[in-house]
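in:
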């Protein structure tokens, strides 16, 4: 989970270059960061920043898979910004590799950058069953509780419609 993807474009490399040659006119640049892996249907976060725009720039961030394209964030600005936004990760039932694509467009300039992101299905929940005794005699009442939790030990709200007991002889 510690892996973070970083999409950089625009003048960042040029900035490093111009710093070396000490002609410090800042070039426009953008930076988008997000986790390389996310859990299915979880609330996910990405951060975007724009630096030193030299004209009004329109930034669009999409999640793409096949020919589906889902807008995650868009912003138009002629000044620097740094913004983090939340979005709902898609629901997947097996590992799914998709792409996050950034487009920055101005009247005289256009950049795109793309990086992969993996969505992992939710792990199976775990169920604990507790009874008041280890062994029962015929006719005794069985008291029990059943708790189902996700992998972060948060109890799930779902209900079991039927619980059956089997007698071992
Ligand atoms: C802004 O900067 C980009 C990249 O350096 C350049 O291609 C573009 O022509 C510039 N636009 C203006 C309006 O100065």
């Amino acid at each position: 989970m510690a892996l973070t993807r970083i999409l950089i474009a625009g003048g960042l490399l040029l900035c490093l270059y111009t710093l070396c040659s000490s002609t410090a006119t800042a070039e426009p640049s953008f930076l988008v960061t997000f986790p390389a892996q996310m859990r299915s249907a979880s609330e996910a976060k990405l951060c975007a920043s724009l630096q030193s725009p030299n004209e009004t720039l329109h930034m669009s961030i999409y999640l793409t898979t096949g020919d589906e394209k889902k807008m995650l964030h868009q912003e138009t600005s002629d000044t620097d910004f740094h913004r983090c936004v939340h979005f709902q990760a898609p629901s997947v039932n097996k590992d799914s590799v998709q792409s996050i694509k950034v487009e920055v467009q101005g009247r005289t300039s256009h950049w795109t950058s793309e990086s992969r992101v993996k969505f992992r299905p939710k792990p199976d929940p775990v169920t604990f069953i507790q009874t008041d005794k280890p062994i029962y005699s015929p006719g005794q009442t069985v008291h029990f509780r059943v708790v189902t939790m996700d992998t972060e030990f948060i109890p799930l709200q779902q209900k079991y419609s039927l619980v059956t007991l089997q007698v071992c002889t």
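note: The pocket of 2-acetamido-2-deoxy-beta-D-glucopyranose is lined by residues 11, 27-28, 54-55, 108-109 (CB under 6 Å).
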